[in-house]
Each structure stands twice: as structure tokens, then as C-alpha cells.
Amino acid sequence: MNRSKAPLLLMEQLVMLLVFALAAALCVRAFVLSDARSQENNARTQAILTAQSVAELYKMVQNPGPQDVVPKDQTRETWIHYYDEHWNDAEEENWDYCLSVQALPTQNPLLGRAELVVCNRQGKELVSLPLAWQVAQGEVNSGG
């Protein structure tokens, strides 16, 4: 009996093709997840840098020196600022990231406290930064 080995060879080829297709699908999924994680980490890094800059500006506004220029559109109590996907200033209707600073009450009138939070449009908090500073005597404000 002379049987052909062609069906066995074809079956082996199909199994190998299935294994390679499965491996390729897993690799594509890993690359997609890696890219998403990379974008999230880049956003968090930019949020940290922006939060540090705004924190220093906020503390300066709370206790300005004679040479400091205080932004006129910001109050001492609460700041809210919006950014687009590239961390440029954005309008309230058209933002991807929101930074807010809220003054907190303190027991000591010579110390100021605030909480700075940066979140994305989905509401996920990227950065939370507690702020504290010393208030110069004679410059105590009621908000904190």
C-alpha cells in the first residue's frame, strides 16, 4: 500500500500557521499595551513638571515679594487651569487635562497649605501634590 503523505504535510503546515498567527496576535497586543502605557507615563511626567511649576507660582502668589508679578486672573483660594493634549493652554470646553489648586485651612496663621491635583478628561488623577509654605508676618490671608 502506497499512501500519500500530502494530507499529513498539509495538516502540519496548518498547525504551524496557527501557532505563528497566535504568536503574532500576542505580540501585537503587547505592543499596543506598551504604547498605551508609554503615553500614560508621558502624560504623568508632563503633569508632574507642570504641577511643580504651578505649585511654585501659587506659593509665590500667596506670599508675593516686591519684585514678583502676580497673575491678575487668579484668586488666592482656588486655581483651575485647563490644558490640551500637548499641554498647551486650553479653553474650558476643549481640554484634555485639568489642574486645580485648592487652599486648605491651617491651624497656624503663619503657615499656608493647599492641594494641587492634575487629572485627565476621564477623571483619572495623574498627580496629587500637597503644598505648604511659610507666610510672611503681616501678609496673613484668611484662605490659608
Please name the defining characteristics of this protein:
single chain, 144 residues, alpha+beta, 40% helix
Overview of this protein structure:
The protein is of the alpha+beta class and 144 residues long. The chain has one domain. The protein contains one helix and four strands; from the N terminus they run αββββ. It has a four-stranded antiparallel beta sheet with strand order 1-2-3-4, covered by helices on one side. The mean pLDDT is 84.
Helical proportion, percent range: 25-40%
Q: What number of domains?
A: 1
N/C terminus separation: 96 Å
Number of strands: 4
The topology string of helices and strands comes to: HEEEE
Unreliably modeled segments: none
CA-based gyration radius: 28 Å
Structural class: alpha+beta
Can you list the strand order of the major beta sheet? 1-2-3-4
**Strand percentage:** 15-25%
> Main beta sheet, described?
4 strands, antiparallel
Mean pLDDT: 84
Summarize it.
The chain is of the alpha+beta class and 144 residues long.
